[in-house]
Amino acid sequence: MVRQVEFTLKPRTRGFHLITQEVMSHLPELPETGLLHLFIKHTSCALSINENYDPSVRNDMERIYNNLVKENQAYYTHVDEGPDDMPSHAKCSLTGVSLTIPVTSGRLNLGTWQGIYLCEFRDYGGARRIVASILG
Asked: What is the domain class of 2-135 according to CATH?
C-alpha cells in the first residue's frame, strides 16, 4: 500500500535545519516495515541526512557550502533574483531534492546520530512544500 501526504514546512532563513520532528508531525502512522520517500518541491533548497546532535555540524555545513559555491561570481548569468539565487540552484543540484528512509517496527530506521535536514540555500526561501510517500 502507498500513502501520500503533502505538507508545508515553516519558513526558515539560510542554513542547515534539523527537521526530523517537524516532518514526523505531518505523517500518518508508519507501517511496521516499509519506506518513507521525501521530495521537496523546490530548486533552491535540498534535503539531507546528517548529524542530529551537535548544532556546530549544521553551522560548519553552511560554511562549507558557502565556500564551495560562492555568491556574486562574474560568470553567473542567472542573477535577476539576487546573489543567493544561482548559488542556491547549484547547491540544490549537489545535494538533492529527495530522501528515502527505511521504516522498521513502525519507526524511521535512522542511525543513532542521524536526522533529516532542510538545507535552505536562500537568505529567506519561505515556506517549503514536501511530498511524503509511505510505502508498506
From this structure: mainly beta
